[in-house]
Amino acid sequence: MRFWRNQEIEEIAMQRLAEFQRDSDRPISLPIPIDLIAEKVLSLDFLWEPIDELPGERILGGLLPERRLIVLNEKHKDVFAKKPGLERSTKGHEMGHWDLFIDKASLDHSMLFQVDDDGPFAYRNSPAGDVAIIRMLWANEEGRELLRKMHARADEPDEARAVNRYAAALSMPAELVREEATKIDRTQWPSLYQLKDKFEVTISALVVRLEQLNLLYVDEHKRLYESRDAATGQGTFGF
Predict the structure, then answer these.
(1) Which end of the chain is less packed: N or C, by CB atoms within 10 Å?
(2) In 3-state terms, what secondary structure has residue 92?
(3) 5-9, 132-136, 214-218: range with lowest mean pLDDT
(4) CA–CA separation, 168 vs 146, rounded Å?
(5) Phi then psi for 72, rounded to 5 degrees?
(6) CB under 8 Å, gap of 24 or more: what pairs does 143-148 form?
(7) What is the value of pTM for the model shown?
(8) Domain positions in the chain
(9) Which one, of 3, 2, 12, 1, lies nearest residue 166 by Cα?
C-alpha cells in the first residue's frame, strides 16, 4: 500500500481544487462543490443503493472502482438527513479511496484491495455489485477507539487515515479554513457551529480539521482554546 504523508495529501487535494477552478473558469467558493469535483475532475458518479452490513457495522458508503462509482448506503438515508454534512464527508472519503489508492491501470481486475479476515478492507454486496469498504465497527468500544486513533494519528501508512485527511482537505481547504476561522471567536461553540454550516460539514469534522491546522484545541472538559499553545499557556504568568 502506498504511504501518503499528510502534506502530500493536502497538496493533492489542492491540486484537484485548482483543476476544478481552471476547468470551470470560476473561483472556489463555499461550500466546496464536492459533487462537481467528483464528476468533473475525477470522473466519478454517485448511486444510492442498499449495502449489506454485518452485525455491528454501519457502512455509509463504498466504492465500485471498475464502474467509477461511489455507492451511498440507502439504508442510512435517515442518518444523512439528520446529520447535515455527513453525506459530503462520505463522498469525500470515497473520493480519497479513488484518488490515492486505486491503480487506474488495474480497473479490469475484480479485486483491487487486499482482503483478509483481520485486515481493514472488505467487500460488501449491493445491487450495483461488490462494494469496497473499510471495516468500521461503530457499535462497540473497538470501533470507537479506532475512530479516535484515526483522528489523532499523524503520518501513518493506513488508508483510513489518509482518505479521511483527503476528505477534510478537499471540503475544508487549509487557506479558506484559516481565513474564515480568524474571523470568529473559536473559543465559543456557537461560532464553530456557524462555521461548520458555512463549509457544510459536520461539527466533528470541523473540529478535527481545525485541530489539524492548529487553529483549535479542545481539552478533556470540552473547553475551547484557539490553539494547543493557548491551552498549555493557561495558568502561566507573563512578565
Answers:
(1) C
(2) helix
(3) 132-136
(4) 18
(5) -100, 135
(6) 143/56
(7) 0.82
(8) 6-171, 173-239
(9) 12
Block residue for cell numbers 475532475:
41
Grid cell in block for residue 164: 479521511
Question: pLDDT of 197-229, one tens digit each?
Answer: 999 999 999 999 999 999 999 999 999 999 999
**CATH placement of domain 173-239:** 1.10.10
Question: What is the spatial distance between Cα 60 and Cα 54, in angstroms, rounded to a whole number?
Answer: 13
Would the CA dihedral through 148, 149, 154, 157 be positive or negative? Answer: negative
Distance CA 239, CA 50 (A): 62
Q: Is 169 exposed, middle or buried (0-12, 13-18, 19+ CB in 10 A)?
A: buried
Residues 6+ apart with CB under 8 A from 193: 203
**Grid coordinates belonging to 165:** 485527511
User: 33: cis peptide before it, omega within 30°?
Assistant: no
